[in-house]
Write a structure and sequence with these properties.
single chain; alpha+beta; 8-stranded antiparallel β-sheet; 28 helices; globular
Length: 1009
């Protein structure tokens, strides 16, 4: 068992219990710090927590000792305690929910497909970006998406979607709609996240600079010499708990001033800025931020610089250490989001590590750590989303019911088949499988992992594959009994001889999981975490718990012999002799499949990988059901679509429901027309829109006295009125598109190729800041009045010729190109790691190379079969085989990653037997491989059959929620079984022969000529 997991899991349980006692539902990001915060809030709850911890640590071992004593097996007391302790950890989150009066299902986080969630769209603050002298271009937006993804999903275990929408907006979709969680994520998203270290100017060292800064007008906060920033007036930040301005001491002659900002008096302090930007100490030099305990015992944010940052920080603090008899100390200014967070005195030289103190609670502490680790946003976002909706579950109730029913039936089938074939030993395996499920689900609950319907299917699949370790052990026991070994010796040898194959197959898959987590995309990380946890508990249950049960049963004489069915007897099949036929068939199938793949082109990819167009619309009166809307749209759109039902709030009425359609079609206007056509003959009518606009008037070149300067002064402005309220961002995008598409007579180029910053659309005073009907449109001086009128006239015509689309824009793929490349790199690196591990374990690189060749073979074959299945779905054969227009989405990617793990597992079991048969013989022969394959054939077929039963049930009964996933996995198991016999082993033989031939040539004596 991986004992290193226990402290984290234990702390997680403590947090769950404390939250239940306080009536809270939200799970914390970092459990240990929440425990500290809860204990500080109430000494009573602290004592309860302490008693729970003691009970969890001690009671399982006390009960284990008592049980061992009662059974007269005192030497097994510690093992009993370990098993009971693990069971306690697995049940902890569910028991805590039950004690708090919540359903057991509340212990798990459900994905958007099962439980819906919250959809928010954030807009870039162009004025803020301009103030920072940064442009909003595609590269900037890509970095913004990546940084926000790291902030809201640092572990990669949550099903959070972050992607670009339109030119300057970012969409974030969060599973669940808990208001506290949504508010926390909003803060994480919109915080600029900039960290900076400087000096507070003091009269002793910076008198000239202070005098110069004090001469600045009150509305100017930055002192520049030429184009170089030398100092800046900055205010303290807000205390996260009290919401009051943090006190900053003015001792040691620091420079301060009071100014008016937003009608309030604000105290500002002068921060000295390093002249050379390369020597400024910022968050870009951070290696990591983390939680630690400060000298006062309270949690603080620790930080660690990279080499350059450590050198600069050491240089800064060394130059300003206290001087004996000087009577002052230099103060360090720590700025977060350009506000002074703290200002400690420099007492000593500081190197690469330091801390940021503050009166943080656990959520704020982790929020700050996540923001710092994710990195600063390139440009600011508006703090409030331009749209925020509650999203209904993406899968209908019928689809959910079918999928979950199929998963339950498949799980029960595994238990029945295992017990039916292996009898008493199978019953032991079923006990271990049940414990495996508890531990896996409990662990996923403790780390806040999100479960989707394919994810639940993956759990059922993991249970089917978990039988493999038990089958290995039982088949070894069978061999020992056939040799005439006693029951005790059969149990001992069965476990010991199977152990190396179990370890090698699981460790190689663990290596894959670790590499995928380190180098993979955010979407892949969640899979890697689940895979790793499942493997740890699988090994623990199959090797540790099963052995304990067998030992107890044998010593208490409850088990006198091990009987099991034997339907697959070892044969003398010449597998190697059929290599050419098998390889030829594989190459032919691969060629056909890859041909189908290239024939379909981009149609192989789903919305997750392609992006496309997005329109949001509503109906007059009461809205139809999601199923009715989907049925109408499916008839109109040839490509697959995604439909979301949106509500402004959970209790919104039927008339407040909107529908958001996503499709891989690139032409937004064409998509709008198809939506209109889909409901042309329907009894439900789409809400229509109209647009009216007033006279275009010049904006005064100078702002009236007492009002802030207008960046659009000298340009044009006009009032626009719409029949249906919409988002300002939606109207802005329409007008910007119109301006960019203008083509003066006789030219093919637009005079406004990038009009994003040329227009500003704001709701008229008195209108809602969310959706409005009356807007003021402002254009910069560079936009001709006639061009603005032309765009307004065209927009009026467009609005009145189509329904009132709330949004009509493009969206980026959830899995961007860079993300796809990082996932590919992760797979390549994991394969290299596997080669090196097997090289180490088997003392020859050929084993690793052969295993990787088999894996690549399986992936290419199944990839081609996905394309073939999609093409056949449009033929008469398709409906009989249950084929649909399969497209590669995130669930199918998860299936491919699982296939890699299964293929490795299967191949290494065979290789382990080859190593055993080979002994100390330096050569690998056909006879060795055939003997090994025949000896492991029963295990190979039994494991494959059990897993295929699960997948067949999921494919036939599971419905569209798990259809693509189960299709891929079903084919993957068949192909993986085939490749372990007919691809991996022959490749190993070929490589071994080449090495022998090479060695023989190198040893051949050279004859003198």
């Amino acid at each position: 068992m991986n004992l290193s997991m226990m402290p984290a899991l234990l702390l997680a349980f403590q947090d769950t219990v404390s939250k239940s006692a306080d009536g809270a539902v939200e799970a914390a990001d970092t459990v240990a710090t929440q425990t500290t915060a809860t204990a500080a809030d109430s000494s009573a709850s602290g004592w309860v927590l302490f008693l729970v911890v003691v009970a969890m640590l001690v009671l399982p071992f006390v009960i284990g000792q008592a049980l061992a004593k009662a059974m007269r097996l005192k030497d097994l007391s510690f093992k009993f305690g370990i098993v009971l302790f693990s069971l306690t950890l697995g049940l902890a989150p569910f028991v805590a929910q039950k004690l708090a009066g919540h359903p057991l299902s509340d212990a798990l986080n459900w994905g958007i497909d099962l439980a819906g969630g919250t959809n928010m769209v954030f807009a870039v603050d162009h004025q803020g970006a301009e103030d920072l002298q940064k442009s909003v271009d595609p590269n900037t937006m890509q970095r913004m998406v990546e940084a926000i993804g790291r902030r809201v999903n640092p572990s990669g275990t949550e099903e959070v979607t972050v992607r670009q929408v339109g030119r300057d907006r970012i969409e974030v979709i969060i599973p669940g709609a808990d208001p506290e969680k949504v508010d926390r994520i909003k803060r994480q998203i919109t915080k600029l996240g900039s960290l900076e270290f400087g000096l507070l100017a003091n009269e002793y060292e910076h008198s000239a600079l202070i005098q110069e800064a004090r001469s600045l007008p009150n509305n100017v906060d930055e002192l520049r010499r030429g184009n170089v920033l030398r100092a800046k007036w900055r205010a303290p930040g807000e205390d996260p708990k009290t919401k009051e301005i943090k006190p900053v001491s003015e001792e040691y002659g620091v420079a301060a001033r009071t100014v008016e900002r937003g009608g309030k008096s604000v105290r500002q302090f002068l921060v000295v800025v390093e002249e050379d930007p390369k020597r400024r100490i910022t968050g870009q030099l951070l290696r990591r931020a983390f939680e630690e305990i400060g000298q006062s015992g309270a949690p603080v944010v620790g930080f660690e610089f990279n080499t350059q940052g450590g050198y600069l920080f050491q240089r800064l603090t060394a130059a300003h250490m206290p001087k004996e008899g000087a009577g002052y100390k230099t103060r360090l200014a720590i700025l977060l989001n350009d506000e002074i967070h703290s200002a400690p005195s420099i007492n000593d030289m500081i190197g690469a590590r330091g801390i940021i103190e503050g009166d943080f609670d656990a959520a704020e502490l982790n929020e700050l750590i996540n923001v710092l680790n994710a990195g600063a946003l390139d440009v600011p976002l508006f703090p409030e989303p331009v749209s925020e909706f509650t999203v209904s579950p993406l899968l209908g109730i019928d689809v959910q019911t079918r999928g979950i029913r199929a998963i339950l039936i498949a799980t029960v089938a595994v238990f029945v088949v295992t017990a039916g074939y292996y009898l008493i030993a199978g019953a032991v395996a079923d006990v271990c499988l049940a414990l495996n499920i508890i531990l896996l689900m409990g662990s996923m609950a403790l780390i806040d992992a999100t479960f989707t319907l394919p994810g639940l299917a993956g759990v059922a699949l993991a249970i089917g594959m978990a039988v493999d370790a038990n089958v290995l052990i039982f088949e070894r026991m069978r061999e020992e009994q056939q040799k005439g070994s006693s029951l005790r010796m059969s149990i001992h040898n069965g476990f010991s001889k199977a152990l190396s194959a179990i370890i090698d197959s699981n460790v190689t898959t663990m290596i894959t999981a670790i590499v995928l987590y380190i180098f993979g995309s955010e979407q892949v990380k969640g899979f890697a975490v689940t895979l790793f946890i499942g493997l740890v508990w699988n090994m623990f249950c199959a090797v540790y718990v099963a052995r304990l049960i067998f030992d107890v049963a044998e010593r208490k004489r409850w088990l006198k012999t091990i009987r099991m069915f034997s339907l697959i007897e070892p044969q003398n099949v010449d597998f190697v002799g059929k290599t050419r036929l098998a390889v030829g068939g594989s190459l032919l199938l691969m060629a056909v499949g890859l041909g189908a793949l290239f024939l379909r082109g981009r149609d192989n990819l789903d919305i997750d990988f392609r992006g496309g167009s997005m329109v949001t619309f509503r109906f007059e009166g009461d809205a139809p059901s999601s199923d009715e809307v989907r049925e109408a749209l499916d008839k109109q759109f040839e490509s697959s679509i995604s439909l979301e039902s949106l509500r402004l709030s959970e209790d919104a009425g039927a008339g407040d429901v909107l529908f958001r359609l996503r499709t891989v079609e690139d032409n937004v206007e064409e998509v709008g027309k198809q939506v209109v056509a889909a409901f042309a003959d329907s009894s439900h009518h789409l809400v229509q829109q109209s647009l009216q606009y007033g006279d275009v008037a010049p904006i005064p070149a100078e702002a009236p006295e007492g009002t802030p300067a207008n960046d659009f002064a000298g340009g044009e402005q006009v009032e626009v009125t719409l029949a249906q309220p919409i988002l300002a961002a939606s109207l802005s995008e329409r007008l910007v598109d119109g301006l960019q598409s203008l083509r003066p007579a006789g030219t093919d180029a637009s005079p406004y190729p990038d009009a994003t910053d040329l227009l500003r659309v704001t709701p008229k005073e008195g209108e809602s800041t969310d959706k409005a009907s009356v807007f003021v449109v402002e254009a910069r001086q560079s936009v001709a009045a006639d061009d603005l009128k032309s765009v307004l006239a065209e927009s009026k015509q467009q609005f009145e010729s189509e329904p009132a689309f709330e949004e009509k824009t493009t969206f980026d793929p959830a899995v961007a190109g860079d993300t796809q490349r990082s996932a590919f790199v992760a797979v390549v690196l994991s394969n290299l790691a596997i080669i090196f591990y097997l090289w180490f374990r088997f003392h020859q690189a050929q084993f690793g190379i052969a295993a990787v060749v088999a894996v690549m073979h399986d992936v290419m074959i199944v990839l081609g079969l996905v394309a073939i299945g999609a093409l056949l779905s449009n033929t008469p054969v398709g409906p009989y085989l249950g084929l649909t227009d399969f497209k590669i989405d995130l669930s199918i990617v998860a299936a491919f990653l699982t296939i890699i793990g299964y293929s490795l597992n299967d191949t290494i079991v065979v290789f382990d037997r080859i190593r055993e048969v080979r002994g100390k013989n330096p050569a690998i022969t056909e006879q060795m491989i055939n003997l090994s394959l025949n000896q492991t054939l029963s295990r190979t077929l039994l494991t494959s059959s059990t897993t295929l039963i699960v997948l067949l049930i999921l494919y036939v009964l599971g419905g569209e929620g798990v259809h693509g996933f189960s299709y891929c996995m079903f084919l993957g198991i068949i192909v993986g079984t085939f490749s372990s016999i007919y691809i991996a082993s022959p490749v190993l033989l070929w490589l071994a022969r080449r090495e022998l031939a090479t060695n023989a040539r190198s040893l051949r004596p050279v004859t003198a000529g």
